[in-house]
Amino acid sequence: MNKGKLTLIVPCYNEEEALPIFYKETVKVLKTIDYSYELLFIDDGSKDQTLNILKDISDSDPDVTYLSFSRNFGKEAAMFAGFCNATGDYVAVMDADMQDPPSLLPQMLEILETGEYDSVATRRVSRDGEPPIRSFFARQFYKIINKISDADVVDGARDFRLMKKDMVDAIVAMNEYNRFSKGIFGWIGFKTYWLPFKNVERIAGETKWNFWKLFKYAIDGIINFSQAPLTIASWSGVLMTFISFAFLVFVFIRKLLFGDPVDGWASQVCIMLFIGGIQLFCLGIMGEYMAKTYMETKRRPHFIISESNKKDINKIK
Ligand code: UDP
Ligand code: MG
Questions:
Q1: What's the per-residue H, E or C state across the chain?
Q2: Which residues line ligand 1 (CB under 6 A)?
Q3: pLDDT digit string (tens) for 122-139?
């Protein structure tokens, strides 16, 4: 019995080593479920043999389609291209490196079949194999973003999730240029079931993330989904004004009581540098928002597809 169609979106960037293993293992699982399926690979401008491998696989398997970008646009763009071109009643996103275990798929489908949920998302409950300093910063990031934005972002959430078509349509309708999927998933709402699993290490190849890339990603996430940094900047301005006023009164009274106040050069320099620093910091925050706004106003496409074996696709969006 066929219960509908499932589209699996798989963003791939330089995954020549992991892809064949991923394909073999995933198809094994997909053959056991009562759904027809489409494996939709997005080649995100890979510089290795990824595209050729995808072509080979899709030649021999009619359930496999691929979209190939004209250059590397990033995983967010790859997922977005997948969402824009998915045809299934159910859509899932998965990494190509086996860090998102395909063996979870049947269970995820079962949970959706109960009709109680619109999506099943996965959350890793351990961070084994990750440097402790990275785990520490990751935890702080989740704490902060949940305090200051209205999108709830779950700690340890992976992009690996299964969704009903309605939810995918909502994601596609979020047409912003600066895409932060963890925030977008949280922002659109819908009933989500959280499925915990133990962290799995990448099977082959290398992660595309280093500490600074992750740090930048975290800052971008906060700026994309919260105006709190701007509020902090204005409040520190207000606070500084009060402090300087109090100081002014203090200096004035001291002058009246004790005469010429010419000492205090050192403290003056400290104060000037401190205030200068805060001003530049606040300007920087404003600059970040302005830069984002600038990119949004250009309305550039999120991705450009140069090659595909799929018909009727959105090539540029
Ligand atoms: N990826 C992508 N474009 C990029 C970087 C990564 O499509 O510019 C894909 C990558 O091929 C993999 C997934 O995104 O399937 C997750 O990447 P990675 O494993 O490097 O991230 P991590 O699991 O370490 O967070
Ligand atoms: Mg990975």
A1: CCCCEEEEEEEECCCCCCHHHHHHHHHHHHCCCCCEEEEEEEECCCCCCHHHHHHHHHHHCCCEEEEEECCCCCHHHHHHHHHHHCCCCEEEECCCCCCCCHHHHHHHHHHHHCCCCCEEEEEECCCCCCCHHHHHHHHHHHHHHHHHCCCCCCCCEEEEEEEEHHHHHHHHHCCCCCCCHHHHHHHHCCCEEEEEECCCCCCCCCCCCCHHHHHHHHHHHHHHHCCHHHHHHHHHHHHHHHHHHHHHHHHHHHHHHHCCCCCCHHHHHHHHHHHHHHHHHHHHHHHHHHHHHHHHHHCCCCCEEEEECCCCCCCEC
A2: 11-13, 15, 44, 72, 74-75, 78, 95-97, 99, 202, 207-209
A3: 998 887 777 888 889 888
